[in-house]
Amino acid sequence: MNSCYKIQPSEVARSAQLAMILEVSASPKPGNIDRTHDYIDTRYEHFLASATGVYPVFERAASGKENIGELLKEAVFESNKWQKGGNTHFGAFLLLLPLAKSAGQLIQENEKFDMKKIVERAHRLVKHTDVEDSINFYQAFGKANVCVQDIEDLDLNDSDSITNLRKNQTSLFELMEISENYDMIAKEWTHGFELCSWCSEQITDLMERGIRTDINCSIVYTFLKLLSKNPDTFIQTKFNRETAVEVSEKATNIVTQIETSGYEASLPSIIEFDEELLKKKINPGSTADIIIGGLFLSIIGGMRF
């Protein structure tokens, strides 16, 4: 990463947009919507519309305006305003907004700009969220129609939970601490965006060293490698833990094949895996969100293709 790379809030916002667009465009990305696969009610174009519509929210995040909870609620509002395909990026917003806000603060402070500083600052920002951020999170959740496991003692679909949040002064970071054992996005908050950082390093390394100069292949390979090491919690919520582990085991087999025989030779296996998951309606959505976070860090760091 070029530590002297000077950017503006608008470039932070465009980096977030491009990360979302590249992730959904990557194909074949097993189980998820991409440029060649749609779901019945949600299409590839819905993701493009969402990524386009939220631009002003990310520019405000990078300009230091508003708290994370407020920004999350605004992002969901803008996403819904521009498309009718339902939830497209809720998990991605939870990752991108602190990262974008962090990048913006570093710009304003004329700090050296690198991935480590961005994630360290983002971790500090999420640790300092408050009860208002929690309330905005609940309100955003209600608008996004997200499939998640309820947080302990707090029904995400119960308006009384907001009363309990205010009574207990529960911060959004504390909600994530409660959820970290069964939600990958929450764990990113509590563990300093470790997997986003890993994805960024993986993708950037593949591109810069010429191992995989095709950005599409680099994303798909990184997606499979991430999935192989981390059972997807969206699958676990939608199905069960056993299904999530089984999917990760199959991803591991394909990663081994790629590392042994190469990406092109393994492409039929990737396509077969993709078709199997699509047929069973198993989509590793949390893995996709983390890939978006990693792509953002790579793009904001100067990776080009």
UniProtKB/TrEMBL annotation:
Domain of life from the UniProt record: Archaea
UniProt xrefs under InterPro entries: CitG
MF terms (GO), sorted A to Z: ATP binding; triphosphoribosyl-dephospho-CoA synthase activity
Pfam family, one: CitG
PANTHER family named among the record's database cross-references: CITG FAMILY PROTEIN
Name of the molecule in the record: Fumarate hydratase
Organism name: Methanohalophilus halophilus
